Amino acid sequence: MNSFIENQNWRYATKKFDSSKKIESQDIDILKEAVRLSTSSYGLQPYKIIIVENPDLRTSLQQAAWGQSQIVEASHLMIFANDVNFGPEGIDSYFKNVSETRNVTMESMSGYMNFMKGTIAAFTQEERNNWSAKQTYLALGNLLNAAAELKIDVTPMEGFKAEQVNEITGLDKLGYNATLLATLGYRHIEDATQHFAKVRKSNEELFITL
């Protein structure tokens, strides 16, 4: 656990990446698995993660992200996108996966399945989208923690025009909406931010024990 805390102190939102350094494929596989294993509400994972490798596409996305250099300088770019109309079909797909993975019948899970469908059906469209968007932040948390363990830098970004990102990547046609961007790679020696002291609230200010 000491190493985990040390790595949390090591990580920061990298402002300048070394574009000459690329993340090895085996490390990308580890990060993908960390994201895949992330917690989510009911385990439903109502989102997609797009890994953008095409340099021309990343240049276009940079313009949708206020020109931030990390978009094109980082080794990898991930887009976290929530399902904008998650509903019964997604729940059916989840329980089919449960049935195959755990070797149980769909019928044996019908009560819980109908409960979940009723719960989500009661959401307004806005509530449903807010709910599914929040799930992407849980997945991002796993990415940040796993990357820190591998000494890979990650910069999470909310500063972008979602509609433009959706249009550039075709997410809008797939029924998804970009909620987060994450650039991954290795900090540049010239990034002065890496030497800044980490600023966080004290335990006394942050925590309340009841």
Give the arrangement of secondary structure elements.
Blueprint: H1 2-10, H2 25-36, E1 47-52, H3 55-64, H4 70-73, E2 76-83, H5 88-102, H6 110-121, H7 125-149, E3 153-157, H8 162-169, H9 171-174, E4 176-185, H10 203-206
Antiparallel strand pairs: 1-2, 2-4, 3-4
Helix pairs in contact: 2-7, 3-8, 5-6
Write a structural description.
With 210 residues, the protein is α+β, with helices and mostly antiparallel strands. It is built from 10 helices and 4 strands, in the order H-H-E-H-H-E-H-H-H-E-H-H-E-H. The chain has a 4-stranded antiparallel β-sheet, sandwiched between helices. The longest helix is centred in the middle third of the chain and has 25 residues. The model has no long low-confidence stretch (mean pLDDT 97).
Oligomer kind = single chain
**Biggest beta sheet summary:** 4 strands, antiparallel
Shape: globular
Output the helix-strand order.
HHEHHEHHHEHHEH
Reading side by side through the largest sheet, how are the strands ordered?
A: 1-2-4-3
Q: What's the pLDDT, averaged over the residues?
A: 97
Category from helices, strands and their pairing: alpha+beta
Low-confidence stretches: none
Distance between the termini: 26 Å
Helix percent reads 40-55%
Strand content: 5-15%
Gyration radius (Cα, Å) is: 19 Å
Number of helical elements? 10
Number of strands: 4
